[in-house]
Amino acid sequence: MASRYDCTDPDGLLTGMRLARAALGRGELVVVPTDTVYGLAADAFSASAVQRLLDAKGRTRQSPPPVLIPGPPTLDALASEVPQQVRDLVDEFWPGGLTVILRAQPSLDWDLGETRGTVALRMPDSRIALELLQEVGPLAVSSANSTGDPAAMDVDAAERMLGDSVSVYLDGGPIEVHDGFAASTGSTIVDATGLSTGGKLTIVRHGVIPDDEIARVVGADLVA
Fold it and tell me: To the nearest whole number, what is the mean pLDDT of the chain?
């Protein structure tokens, strides 16, 4: 049976984080607040945990989850190449609502699904999520909802959709809606895999960071 902890209370945060770490270590799922939506998290290096995440959402391996990381140093550990344009974007928008698709290190011992050798990486601007990431390392995280439903903006919505497929729910209160965006708007996703071969960076999902802000940083290297 799932457990839920009020992370706005110091005791609830302490207990919830301890049990979330333990659950992730067992290959189980945890719901955690981020800066954009509530996320459904699994150990990125456990193939069975990632499959459990996909099953809980009703997704196939053709929809691999992005990976949340605790900071830019992990970017270099997980990506085989980080172009300067990506470093400029990360300097500007991390922690925050920017996800970057890069070529993954070929030596990584993980299975996120049909990634075609890429990985989508983000450093969230969330105290709870970052604390968990700093303690357990990279997490495969997708929005905490059933496929086809709006992403959860509070833990109640996540629990209604995911139920006992999740071991621990970390309740950080409602997610603040970004100015100018509808509730459940996710991160802006950019594909940087073409930069190394002379191509341009492409916006593949329009999210909480406006396109013109991405263009301001990378200029002519962007295809919107």
Answer: 93
